[in-house]
């Protein structure tokens, strides 16, 4: 779905905002100046900006969007409450908004509430669990069984020893403990302990977007909609990228 959005002028609320007479951002190819703004951040936050910038360029190339990715990153956006993406996406929630909009090719800008609506789960609370290495047990919120078979997904990002692994799993289960056991059997307890187990399919997750092809994502959505079909009860998908030294 492509949405063409007009971009009205937006008042900037960022502490990095410049007067109208100045350039919006300093030329990155110029030498540093003593008067340059100093921004204190973390490597994780910088990686979020890089992720959104990459998704922006990929979206524009994929859909032949006649808009410069750098201009999009440096311009104020309603979806970030008037901040530019390069400023706003240092924050995790804004990063997720940017990844969703570009990953699904939704357009150039939206009201923040519209994007947040797309990020919400349909009819269940977010039962996310990051299992501690010691016991491989999801936290209390995710340990509760839904009482019926549902679609669960999990992602793993693991680096250790001589292995770098990224993995995606989807299967039908009544309890996240069942999913945890399947991951232990496939990857071993140590790697499976890093699993992020969630109820439902979350296509905007960065690892999911990186690993799951569109056709597989469509199949997962179809199974999630038709859980009552007996043929779907044994559904399971495992996708992994592994590099061993």
Describe how the helices and strands are arranged:
Elements: H1 43-62, H2 69-74, H3 85-88, H4 92-103, H5 112-119, E1 129-130, H6 140-143, E2 150-160, E3 163-173, H7 176-187, H8 189-192, E4 196-199, H9 206-211, H10 214-225, E5 236-244
Antiparallel strand pairs: 1-4, 2-3, 2-4, 3-5
Helix pairs in contact: 1-4, 4-5
In short:
This protein has 245 residues and is of the alpha+beta class. The chain contains 10 helices and 5 strands; from the N terminus they run H-H-H-H-H-E-H-E-E-H-H-E-H-H-E. It has 2 domains: 1-120, no CATH class; 129-244, no CATH class.
Would you give an account of this structure?
This protein is of the alpha+beta class and 245 residues long. It folds into two domains: 1-120, no CATH class; 129-244, no CATH class. The protein is 36% helix and 15% strand. The chain contains ten helices and five strands; from the N terminus they run αααααβαββααβααβ. It has helices at residues 43-62, 69-74, 85-88, 92-103, 112-119, 140-143, 176-187, 189-192, 206-211, 214-225; strands at residues 129-130, 150-160, 163-173, 196-199, 236-244. Strand 2 (150-160) and strand 3 (163-173) form a beta hairpin. Helix 4 (92-103) packs across helix 5 (112-119). It starts with 42 loop residues before the first helix and ends with a strand.
Annotation keywords:
single chain; 245 residues; alpha+beta; five-stranded antiparallel beta sheet; 10 helices; globular; disordered N terminus
